[in-house]
């Protein structure tokens, strides 16, 4: 890795890329080398080691010894949001970007994002992304890129998020540093990007989206967010319900034209919760589960009338409202049968 690389390339303002790192010894080097290969000259790479126990902290130091643009900060384990916030506290760049240690980026990404921001016309720029498996094979696009560079105003961007078509990830975006003067990532949550992005969208006119899929999300099957036992249950399914309530309040207060989209989002997030909560937790003393069940029963009319829910969505919601444990048992049996016949 050459620390001198890119000095003759465009870029007068410094970019700080914050990478939260935790037990990433098998994938971190690829991520860091992709950042060091950027064609943008003024780059700072902040590796925030969040209390790794597998030798990742030592790897961070070895990588930093190879390239003077890499800065390492070690801290006690506190989660990805805590590590990002630590990175924000030490970042020296004019622009702030983020990357996850699992992922990697094409060499042109930060030059392209900075090019857009340096025009001074747009407040935030976003590169498009794809998803790949551990062998680099492309997976179906979750966020379909635009055909050409497109400015998306904040209300439209929120609408896309409510449709589950927008990209809430901070890793695909480049921000002016001042945006984070009064904002930090909520700690202790697993849907933190969505919540913070909604806060920021209320303060900016919108985001420009570039069509190139230059950020590559790597889906690791051993990831702790993907590996589940019969009774395990990720905190993310609680967070998405709480965020749905938050966005409903925001929409009704500031973007009333999006009301029905927010209702659809609210019901869909609760459907996701109900399809993942373990049967062992579908009990009378589970307060959160009982609140979700009560909400669905009170909003049967919205389920039936909402024009943006599919027929399958409505059928599942109504069945889960009427007989949640029975429906979940049947759903689990169908999923197991499907896996056996693959």
How is the secondary structure organized here?
Elements: E1 15-21, H1 28-36, E2 43-50, H2 56-66, E3 70-75, H3 80-90, E4 95-98, E5 104-105, H4 109-118, E6 125-132, E7 150-153, H5 154-162, E8 173-176, H6 192-201, E9 206-218, H7 236-254, H8 259-276, H9 287-298, H10 300-305, H11 311-322, H12 324-340
Parallel strand pairs: 1-2, 1-4, 2-3, 6-9
Antiparallel strand pairs: 4-8, 5-9, 6-8, 7-9
Helix pairs in contact: 6-7, 7-8, 8-9, 8-11, 9-11, 11-12
What can you tell me about this protein's structure?
This protein has 342 residues and is α/β, with parallel strands linked by helices. Helix content is 42%, strand content 16%. The chain is built from 12 helices and 9 strands. The protein has helices spanning 28-36, 56-66, 80-90, 109-118, 154-162, 192-201, 236-254, 259-276, 287-298, 300-305, 311-322, 324-340, and strands spanning 15-21, 43-50, 70-75, 95-98, 104-105, 125-132, 150-153, 173-176, 206-218. Strands 1, 2, 3, 4, 5, 6, 7, 8 and 9 form a 9-stranded mixed sheet that branches. Strand 2 (43-50), helix 2 (56-66) and strand 3 (70-75) form a beta-alpha-beta unit. It is globular and about 60 Å long. The chain starts with 14 loop residues before the first strand and ends with a helix.
Number of helices: 12
Can you tell me the overall shape? Answer: globular
Report Rg. 21 Å
> How would you spell out the order of helices and strands?
EHEHEHEEHEEHEHEHHHHHH
Global structural class: alpha/beta
């Amino acid at each position: 890795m050459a620390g001198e690389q890119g000095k003759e390339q465009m870029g007068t303002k410094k970019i700080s890329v914050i990478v939260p790192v935790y037990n990433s010894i098998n994938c971190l080097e690829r991520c860091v080398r992709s950042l060091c290969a950027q064609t943008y000259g003024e780059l700072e790479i902040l590796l925030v080691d969040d209390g790794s126990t597998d030798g990742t902290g030592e790897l961070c130091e070895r990588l930093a010894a190879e390239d003077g643009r890499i800065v390492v900060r070690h801290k006690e384990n506190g989660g990805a949001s805590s590590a990002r916030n630590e990175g924000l506290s030490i970042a020296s760049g004019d622009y702030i970007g983020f990357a996850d240690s699992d992922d990697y980026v094409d060499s042109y990404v930060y030059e392209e994002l900075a090019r857009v921001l340096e025009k001074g016309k747009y407040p935030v720029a976003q590169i498009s992304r794809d998803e790949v498996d551990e062998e680099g094979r492309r997976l179906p696009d979750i966020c379909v890129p635009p055909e050409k560079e497109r400015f998306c105003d904040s209300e439209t961007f929120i609408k896309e998020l409510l449709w589950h078509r927008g990209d809430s990830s901070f890793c695909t975006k480049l921000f002016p540093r001042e945006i984070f003067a009064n904002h930090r990532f909520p700690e202790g949550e697993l849907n933190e990007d969505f919540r913070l992005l909604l806060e920021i969208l209320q303060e900016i006119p919108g985001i420009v989206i570039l069509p190139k899929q230059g950020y590559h999300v790597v889906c690791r099957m051993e990831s702790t967010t993907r590996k589940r036992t019969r009774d395990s249950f990720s905190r993310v399914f609680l967070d998405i319900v709480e965020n749905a309530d938050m966005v409903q309040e925001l929409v009704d207060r500031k973007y009333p034209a999006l009301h029905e989209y927010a209702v659809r989002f609210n019901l869909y997030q609760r459907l996701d919760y109900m399809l993942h909560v373990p049967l062992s937790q579908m009990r009378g003393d589970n307060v959160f589960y009982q609140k979700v069940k009560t909400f669905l029963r009170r909003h049967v009319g919205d389920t039936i009338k909402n024009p943006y829910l599919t027929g399958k969505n409505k059928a599942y919601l109504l069945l889960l409202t009427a007989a949640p444990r029975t429906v979940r048992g049947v759903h689990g049996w169908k999923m197991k049968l499907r896996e056996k016949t693959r």
